[in-house]
Specification:
This protein has 150 residues and is mainly α. The protein has a single domain (35-143), classed as Up-down Bundle (AhpD-like), CATH 1.20.1290.10. Helices cover 64% and strands 0% of the residues. The chain has helices at residues 6-9, 11-30, 35-49, 52-64, 69-74, 86-99, 120-143.
Length: 150
């Protein structure tokens, strides 16, 4: 199998994707979302998609921003814990809705689910983060970006 790093093959497209992610992060911060919540969103989508490269990057980022190992350890089972705030739970639910967008729950799609714990701007920002991290997950997975221990 031939490995093609998509980011290297078309650097302008990769740069545009990085620009979208930067705008999504800035929108999230401007809406009042906390930096750790943003990392949780990126981590949860990366867990679902199985993107080892993004998991490593965003785990390190979360730890650097003060996230705890306990919360990271239970992130994939966030619904079964009391570790996360209502706003974080809403953001994680949105992340799963975006990442698993083909799934229909109770006849509704992601955009139809209400999340009163977050403002409209925060919901929109979480969706943009979900969209951008899902794109990065797909880029890294299909490029077979190496995940070597440092």
């Amino acid at each position: 199998m031939r490995t093609i790093f998509l980011d290297k093959a078309f650097p302008d497209a990769y740069s545009a994707l990085k620009g979208v992610a930067k705008q999504a992060d800035e929108a999230a911060l401007a809406s009042g979302l906390q930096p750790l919540l943003i990392e949780l969103v990126k981590l949860r989508a990366s867990q679902i998609n199985g993107c080892a490269y993004c998991l490593r990057v965003h785990t390190r980022d979360a730890l650097a921003k003060g996230e705890t190992t306990d919360r990271l350890a239970v992130l994939s089972s966030w619904r079964d814990t009391d570790y996360f705030t209502e706003a974080e739970c809403a953001a994680l639910a949105i992340t799963e809705e975006i990442t698993l967008i083909a799934d229909v729950t109770s006849g509704r799609r992601a955009a139809d689910v209400d999340h009163p714990e977050l403002s409209d701007a925060q919901v929109a920002a979480v969706r943009w983060i979900g969209i951008s991290i899902n794109a990065f997950n797909r880029l890294s997975i299909t490029s077979h970006h190496p995940v070597d221990p440092d």
